[in-house]
Each structure stands twice: as C-alpha cells, then as structure tokens.
Amino acid sequence: MYHNPVMLHETIQGLAIKPGGNYVDATYGGGGHSAAILPELDHGRLIAFDQDSDAMANKINDERLILINHNFRYLKNFLKYHDALPVDGILADLGVSSHQFDVAERGFSLRFPGRLDLRMNRKQGKTAQNVLNEYSLDDLTKVFREYGEINNARAISVAIVKARETKPLVQFEDLQAVLLHYAPVAKEIKFFAKILQALRIEINEELDALKEFLIQAAEALKPGGRLVVLSYHSLEDRLVKNFIRSGNFEGTVEQDFYGNVKTAFTAINKKPLVPQEKELEQNSRSRSAKLRIAEKL
Questions:
Q1: Spatial separation of the C-alpha atoms in residues 245 and 215, rounded to whole Å
Q2: CA distances (Å), 48 to each of 22, 111, 211, in order?
Q3: Residue 107 — left, alpha, or beta (φ > 0 → left; ψ -120 to 50 → alpha)?
Q4: Per-domain residue ranges for the chain?
Q5: For 40-59, what is each residue's pLDDT tens digit?
Q6: Theoretical Cys-Cys bridge with 148: which of 15, 100, 198, 235, CB 3.0 to 4.6 Å?
Q7: How far is it, in rounded angstroms, from Cα 97 to Cα 55?
C-alpha cells in the first residue's frame, strides 16, 4: 500500500461534507483520503495537491477529481485557476507517506540507510547533502536546534563541520558515524529520527509552506467551511493550534473593539484528537498524529 491514511474516519467526519460542495485534499499521497471523500460527493468537486511526482501515479479515475502536482503553499492560485473559490472544506495530512518512508533512495527512513536526500519534491535542487556539506556552523546549529529540538545542536554541528573537511557526507552511514558518539544511550533511533526531521523540514521549507497554506486556507474557505489538519510533531501542531486559536502563529490573542478574538476560525475540538488503540495496533506510524478541526467564522 502506498499509504495507509491516518484517522480516516475522524478526518472525513471532521470535514462535514456537503454533496454539492468543493473540497481540497492538500496532501494527496496515495489518494486514501480522497478516495473516502469522493463517494460523499454528488455534483461537488475535489481539488487535490501533492508536490511529490510519485503521487501522480495514484490518481483516481474520477471526473470530479483534479490532481495538481504542486506544493499546497500555492493553494489559492490553483483554486482560482480552476474556478473553485470559495471551498467548503480543506484537509491536510502533514505526515511523510508510507511510500516515501519505504523507498530507500528517498532517505526518509532509518530502516534503509542510503544517500542523504530527503526531498519531498525530487525536482528541487537542495538535498540533505547540500545542507550538511555547505551550511555554516551557525546555520547548521539553528536547523538542528529549531527543527530537531536537539539539546546538543552546537556540538553535533561542530562535529559535522570538522568531518566534512576530510570528506563530504554523502550517505546516511557517513552522518551516523560522525554523530553516533552524541546520541543518548539506548535512544539512538530517536536521536537520529530528530536529525532527519530537522534536515527534512529545512530542505522542504515545511514550516514556511505550512504557514502560507494556513493563511490561504482561511481566505479560501466559505463561512462555515471546515479546516482539518493532521500533524505529527510539536512544531507543526503548535502552528496549527495557534493559528486556529488566535489568527497568528505566535499564539498572541488580539481582540477587536467589541472584544472578539481576531481569528478566522472557531475550534471544533479544543484538544487534538489522537488515534484509537485499535488504529495504533494496525498502524504504528499513526502514534504521533494529532488531528485539529476548525470551522471558518
């Protein structure tokens, strides 16, 4: 299976689908969420996005589906082009797909050490090799501290800069050899998962893209329309939570003259939904998932 959709029932239910509505699947992947949305539509439309060209092979043969091979940060441009504004619901699953984890040369999984790549869109130029071999000490430290939330970010960055003076870091094994000394005992897998997360976020500009997407989603939705977002680490979830709650990414609550909070949304679930035990048993990759649902005011 290309990808096993996380919390499928909860996400579809959260969209509150209207048969004649326009909906967006901002992260198409294997088409699992889209395949569940389409049967709920009558004469409505589904516009889907995925920046990974591999996902295009999974296009469902349905005239109501438009699949766009671009990052969801260009949401409004393409919705306008397809005369789909405003929309009734937007879904985004921010996780790495099972396919991306399972294809060794993509470099996303610790199970298949290989070339340091980590690009969601393989047409873009910058890879993990570029970051590790070309970034300055300060820039590397910032990447690991902010995106990996790694306490010894400075020390590992110093080690990387020193190691690359001898030979470039090309394979994951090269990076592992340099940093294994810095991994906490018995927590090596978690440590290197954070390293890959930090590199992936930097390479794919994931947090900047998410911010742009959320701002555009607020503008693209009809009043009463639903925003449904699945996130998998605290950096993503914090941005989503703050934007829904306060209309900004810092979480600063501002009020208008009448005391109303300046936000485009009201949260449907005050606390994020998490996978049920049965789903965790069937799909361990869903363990870190958090689902937030909001309605456009």
A1: 13
A2: 11, 30, 18
A3: left
A4: 8-98+206-296, 116-202
A5: 999 999 999 999 998 899 99
A6: 198
A7: 10
Say which residue the tokens 């501290």 belong to.
Answer: 145
- CATH class, domain 8-98+206-296, is alpha beta
Gyration radius of the chain over CA positions: 20
Burial label for 24, CB within 10 Å (0-12, 13-18, 19+), is buried
**Site of tokens 């199970």:** 111
Pairing verdict, β 221-231 and 290-296: antiparallel
Q: Right CATH number for 116-202 from 1.10.540.10, 1.10.150.170, 1.20.910.10, 3.40.1010.20?
A: 1.10.150.170
Look at residue 109 in the predicted model and tell me its pLDDT: 56
- Predicted model pTM: 0.93
Task: Dihedral sign for Cα 252, 257, 261, 264, please.
Answer: negative
